[in-house]
Structure formats: C-alpha cells, structure tokens
Amino acid sequence: MDLAIDPSTTLADLVTSHPDLAGELERRSLDYCCGGQRTLAEACRAHGLDPEATALELAGASTATGPSPWASLDAAALVDHIEAEHHAYLHRELPRLRALAAKVHGVHGAAHPELTAVVSTFGQLHAELEPHLAKEERVLFPLIRQLAADRPEEPRMGLTGPISQMLREHDHAGELLERLRRSTDGYRVPPDGCASYGALYRGLEALEADTHLHVHIENNRLFPMVAGLESGGGAAASRSAR
Q1: pTM for this one?
Q2: How many CB atoms lie under 10 A from the CB of residue 100?
Q3: Contact 75/222 with Cβ under 8 angstroms?
Q4: What is the DSSP letter of 159?
Q5: Distance (Å, rounded) from C-alpha 58 to C-alpha 44?
Q6: Do the Cβ atoms of 51 and 44 come closer than 8 Å?
C-alpha cells in the first residue's frame, strides 16, 4: 500500500512516524528538530519548494517501516534511551572528531583556509555540548525520572526553566551545525583531500544527522511529555487522564 503524506503534517510528527525520512528532509534543508512544529507545507514554502510535489517525493522515498521503538517510550524510558544512544555517541565522537579536525587542518590548512573555520566552529560546538550533556545527565534527566515515578514525598523542582535553557542551547547547536555545513560546502571533500579528510567530513555529517534526531526526540517528544506530566500532577494523574 502506497504511503500518503499530508502536507499539513508537522515535520516533527512526520519524522516520529517515518524516521527513515529524516535524511530526506535534511537533504531539502527542512529543519525537523528545532523547527519541527512547522507543517511540511510551511517549511516547503519557506524554502521555495512545492508542498504537494515534496509530499509525493517523500512518500516515494519512505520505506514505510513505521515509527521507531523510541516513539512509544514513556518519559523515564525515553531519557534512558537518549543517554544510551545519543549521549554515548556524542561522548565518543566529539573528542575523536576534534582531534581529527586538528590533524586535517595541520596537513591541508594552507591549501584549504576554510578548515580554519571548521576547526573553530567544531571546537565551539564541542565546548558547548559537553556541559549541555552534563546538565541533562546530572540535573534534568534525574528530575524527569523522579517526575515520571510520581513520588509525591520527594521535593519536586519545576522543569520549565531547565527545559527552556535546553531549548535555547539546542537552537544554538543547530546554528553551529549549519555553519559547519556551509564551511564544508555540504561536507564535500575536495579532490586533493586525503583519507583523513574524507573521514572527518563523513564523521561530521554523521554527527549532524544524529544530533538532529537527538534534538528532535527531546524537543518534540520528551519535553512536551514532561509538560503533560507536570500539568497533570505526575505519572498517576497522567495515567488516569488517558
């Protein structure tokens, strides 16, 4: 059965339902993480794309395998997933790619001055993401687990402020990733690029894709879920409302 995509669907809902389309949206510069609440039609018009034609292209590109397993997780299980999959990935890849960027710049920087911008921007991204991950792992995520467990005997800190800060930091990380994409000409390895040059650009592009999905899960799935738990008085109230 052919997949039909409604242009009035938000980008966030589209990727949650069809995660295989994340790459297709990225190739069209349609921001589904920080800009996930826009509809496909709105995002297409902003980029000069025809919404109906794009919806047909996306439907044809989808394997229609259904939502990813994380789409059905509750808040506590979702933070476990984010830490195990996306935080672990960043903890591993950020230092590796920073060292690789320095190496490539040392060899090719004279011929490719754009690498100076790549090293600088990635260094800023690394410096900002490490404390961001720590704040989530040490403060925000434990509070979300406590809220999801609905333990009224424990003092509870409001999460609106911490989440607002995370959203701002997500936005800036997205800006830095976009700057990296521009500096690398869309991660295009120049003809004289060595194997390390190619490995760097492939690694940066993979990090961009993983971080976009990571931010999407938090912005468009986890944080709205937490807001619902807070407004409903915790997990028990949330269950009784369903």
Answers
A1: 0.86
A2: 19
A3: yes
A4: S
A5: 12
A6: yes
Backbone phi, psi, residue 52, to 5°:
-65, -45
> How many angstroms separate the CA atoms of 161 and 2, rounded?
43
pLDDT at 158: 81
User: Cβ-count burial of 78 within 10 angstroms (0-12 exposed, 13-18 middle, 19+ buried)?
Assistant: buried
CB 121 within 8 A of CB 176: yes
Give per-residue pLDDT as tens, 212-237: 999 999 999 999 999 999 887 555 43
Specify the 3-state DSSP secondary structure of 113: coil
Q: Which residues contact 46 (CB under 8 A, 6 or more apart)?
A: 38
Q: Which helix (H) or strand (E) covers residue 115, if one does?
A: helix 114-135
Continuous H helices in 136-217: 141-149, 160-183, 195-217
Q: What are phi and psi of 217, to 5 degrees?
A: -60, -40
Task: Give the whole-angstrom CA distance, residue 94 versus residue 117.
Answer: 17
The residue type found at 100 is: L
One-letter identity of residue 87: H
- Both tokens of 82, joined, read 């984010």
Q: How far apart are CA 184 and CA 197, in angstroms?
A: 11
- Measure the CA–CA gap between 147 and 141, rounded to whole angstroms: 10
